[in-house]
Amino acid sequence: MKVRDAILVLACLVVGYASPLRAQQKGQWVPGQYGLNAGVIPDPGFTYVNLALNYSSSQLNDSSGNRRPNITGTYSFWLDENIFMYVPKHKFLGGYFAPYVSVNVANGSLVADIAGTNLGLNGGGWGLSDTFVAPVNLGWHFKRADINAGYAFVAPTGRFTPLANNNTGSGYWGNNFTSGTTYYITKNKGTSANLFTDWEFHGKKNGIDITPGQAFTMEWGLGQILPLKKDFSRLLQVGVIGYDQWQVSKNQGLTKPFPFYSSHAIGFQTSFIMPAKGLALFFKFEDAYRALSTTKGRTIVFGGSWTLRIPKPAPPKK
Question: In this predicted model, what pLDDT tens digit does every residue of 50-67 receive, in sequence order?
Fold first, then answer.
């Protein structure tokens, strides 16, 4: 990568580091959303999820996965997701209709120096980021598996001006086709294997000749539930999780010659679950062990979900 190209990479970081966009011209899906319980949808009713995600990196890799020593600095962002989902009690196509919307707030920073150019780049900003809307999302419950599939779009509601240093949005529309599967390895559903996939297509960025290439993401997990009380009213879930993300089609416009990127990470997840109250708390950590043509960093995610069941479950018989 020439110095000119490196400057453009970092400029792209400045103009679009927030929730949906990281490094080079990566897609809008930020890994870390899923892990365990990837195929599970909530019970009928209203569900609110708050998910806080932090990504941080001090390393930019080339297309061979080696660190670029002439580019130093730090890059990080916080993303706070507010997810609202409604699941009607009546089935549709044998499953449950589960549309949702995620309203996001981002806060990030970039400090970078390019050796030998006497040029330093820095940027940061916070505010409303892009909005993720899933108008079509269906979930099915089977004897040994939970599965969901849907379509979503990303609306560029975040602040975006080409080459500005305080953007909080990506500046373009996106389309996502998603699926989630949780397979229960044991009959009591205590041990599970999980896989989430997202295939995303992108529009052209507002005000600048850049159209990011398509991207494919897999998030996976292998988990075990441990009862904290004999009546199973309090559960602890632990497991190994990770993600793999690839660019699968060429960029268009100014970033067309950039090499395809990919990122791969592994980590763990712990969750505290109170099934009767519809409450769950979670914590995730994932560390990238390989990255090509993008930053190599760490992801920390924590938050919780609460479901107001409609209709309200009948009290247990005495």
Answer: 999 999 998 888 889 999
